[in-house]
Amino acid sequence: MDGQKRVPRNLVPKLIIGMMLGFVVVAVFLMLGDFKEVGNAIAEMPVYFIVPAFLFTFISYMLRLWKWHAFSRWASFPVSFRANTSIFFIGLMMSITPGKAGELIKSYLLQREHNVPYAKSIPIVIYDRLTDLLAMMLLVVIGLLVYPIGLPSLILLLLIILSFFLVLQKQALVAKLVNWITKPKKLRRFRDSLHAFYQQTLFFMRFRILSFAFCISVVAWLLECVSLYLVIQAAGVDVSFVASILTFSLGTLAGALSMIPGGLGAAEGSITGLLIYFGVTGSLAITISLVIRFVTLWFGVILGIIVFLVKGRAGKRIF
Known about the structure:
Elements: H1 2-9, H2 11-33, H3 35-43, H4 47-74, H5 81-93, H6 101-114, H7 118-144, H8 151-168, H9 171-181, H10 191-203, H11 207-234, H12 241-257, H13 266-277, H14 282-311, H15 313-318
Helix pairs in contact: 2-14, 3-14, 4-5, 4-11, 4-14, 5-6, 5-14, 6-7, 7-10, 7-11, 7-12, 9-10, 11-12, 11-14, 12-13, 13-14
């Protein structure tokens, strides 16, 4: 229990580090784009484009929350929708922290408040992120059908993921691998947990669950692509909807694969670069990149902080 208490306490400085890193990234991009020009461009963006962008992002969050709750129901976790809402949004709050603490806090809360073993919750956390990754890749493919840039790298990543799925289906092979890994005496105590981890993962590979999660993820992330398109329209730039899909999905994918907390810097840089590729001037591309990241990333962090503060009692138990 002491170890479980220490983990959440470490999240406080991680959250602060994540926010400081975010401020540094914004400051760097503001300097690159000229603070005055970026400020003027943001001030001139019509509210009737920006408000719907926030709305589409919020709907995206709710769809992903629905998926998360469906996973917990299929896994027979004794968790209500209200409790899962808190867990989901607190996870968003921690998405900017080093070491994937957002995912860690989800498993921690499930274990601490609902007695769900880590071996059962961690596979769901991973699977949730994996379905998001697959959805993002589909959106990238849609964009690449019109703008074929970086196709070889995407094909390689797709082959790696497909190989991963194929290997997971080989139960005898995975069982032998787990037994071999845990053969040393010091690791033997983890054997049962790893087998339980694998069985839980295998359960969620069923076609019915996979197809549901994949479709929800595609719609959810497509809505955030719509948010980018609205921000682009607010900036008065002529960029197509398909180009917006490719820009947001490929930029977000680059941020995720960078393993940097929240994709900070990597996502902004990728989105800016792609916008410049599609003919947007440098300063305006930086403006659009910063705005869409606030609409899709920092909006979730702020909502998570609000949920965390409203929950109150859980705040004392987590940190």
